Amino acid sequence: MSYLKAHIQPNPVPHKHSKKKRIFKILTGRLFIVAVLILLQLILLLLGLIKLGTMRYWINLTFNILSFLMVLCILPREDNPSYKISWIILIMAVPLLGGIFYLMFGMKHNGKRMARQIESYTQSLLHKNHGACACGSDQGTEDCIRKLGQNHPCLARQANYIYRTSGFELYQNTETEYFPIGEKFYARLLEELRAAKHFIFLEYFIVHPGVMWDSILKILEQKQAQGVQIYILYDDMGCVVTLPALYCDYLRDKGFHVGVFNPVRPRLSAAANYRDHRKICVVDGNVGFTGGINLADEYINAKERYGHWKDTAVLLRGDAVQSLTEMFLELWQFTCEKTLELADFLPTIHRSCAGFVQPYGDSPLDSFNVAENVYMQILNHAQNYVYITTPYLILDNEMITALCLAAQSGIDVRIITPHIPDKWYVHMVTRSHYRQLLQAGVRIFEYTPGFIHAKMFVSDDDTAVVGTTNVDFRSFYLHFECGVAFYLSPIVSQVKEDFLRTQNICEEITTEKERLVKAPVRILRILLRAFAPLM
Questions:
Q1: CA distances (Å), origin 16, targets 19, 54, 185, 214, 243
Q2: CA-CA 20 to 30 A from 506: which of 51, 342, 349, 398?
């Protein structure tokens, strides 16, 4: 508790622009312009449909019949039940517009081209060097899994699931370091960037000029002048309000290799749903970072947005960095259509350490819901406790069942969510789940100093996951995500200790407090929850 309190300091008062300047900045911003153009398309579409629907009674009747048939087509699909229910409600409530929206956004057909391109590269990438570094020998991941399973068959089962569904291997020869707060991660990141000799990979959802990014950019310029190859990949939607439209050209002019994942276009398209939510830094193939921390000042509390910002990250040094490199190259190939050979970026150092490490990625374009299934397996295998931190708690039926079943079976299930939200409507949906979870025996805490952005699971002193995946629909079904599973590693106890320290400065939510929530608020929560899968 003392550590966290020591780092929760008042931030300097930010410079305040005049009201006119703020309004002008919003009105001329890229997000506003794109939103207006999309809104105009929606209005024209809606007017056309209304006009068509009122021309003849039989035309309107036809649309209603088609909407009903569309609902019958949705029911047998393999999509998540909550996702299907949300679309059915929309289609039946607004037959004309709801049906068109489902055809455009709900069927996910726009992701097929992206899926084929990424899959073709990923398969060759993962199997070309398959097993070369696992366990520090050519024995491969299967031997590693057998070794893990000798005393911990449940952990081996989890590792085998990740390996068989995603192709990402299990490693031993890797040092690990855990960062319980953004400021510590930032200091180590600068240190490792300064030590780069050959190449640097940066893949981030958000990049925002300021104290953090400006200092990183200065180091990158210095390293580039020394002959270090710099590769930067950022998500355009994540940066739509933080970077200007042509920022990639600005970076390229400095000599960097730059990719912008899935650029935002002012048109109605389901492709905009797929975002690169990963946070990855790889230095010389030997050092890798990942976790919840983006490259923006609030993540290191250099700027206050929603109170104190609590986030976490991990560093890997050694063999397991190869998997982070594979993830970067996977989306780099798709984004830039330029092939980089994995063999040129493999680890060159091997470090002995206790325990096992398994970095893994998750794609929204395949049939394996890896990230959510990893979380649910931890809940299903737990013997004593599962502690969870997440900024968003937007649950499908499967995750609700797993959480409640674990708690009802006597497992100590605890969840920490933010007290100060970054998105009020998402926080309303998060809180809509509290009552059901509390009744099942789950303990819920809100981080009263501000916003907790860390995404972590830790269980039974032997398993932990630190990564980028929120416990919500977007992370599970629409984002490219990544994480690192630790088995029998010293990091497991560090994550647990950090959770308990954080819990000590949280407010526990009780059933009695939930009963005091006013009826209008409950109704709003229910309405928002009904459409949560579409947010």
A1: 9, 51, 29, 21, 20
A2: 398
> In DSSP terms, which residues pair with 287 in a beta bridge?
283, 317
Is there a contact between 199 and 299 (Cβ–Cβ < 8 Å)? no
- Calculate the dihedral angle through the C-alpha atoms of 206, 208, 212, 217, rounding to the nearest 10 degrees: 100
Three-state SS for 276?
strand
The residue type found at 478 is: L
CB 275 within 8 A of CB 248: no
Cα separation, 412 vs 496, in Å, equals 13
Phi/psi of residue 273, nearest 5 degrees? -65, -30
Which residue's structure tokens are 């037959």?
Answer: 95
Q: For residues 281 and 289, what is the distance between their CA atoms, to the nearest angstrom?
A: 5
Which ranges of 310-459 does DSSP label H, i.e. alpha helix? 321-336, 370-381, 397-408, 424-432, 434-440
Interval 434-484: pLDDT, tens = 999 999 999 999 999 999 999 999 999 999 999 999 999 889 988 999 999
Query: Is residue 477 classed as helix, strand or coil in its secondary structure?
Result: helix
Q: How many angstroms separate the CA atoms of 39 and 46, rounded?
A: 10
Cβ–Cβ under 8 Å, residues 171 and 357: yes
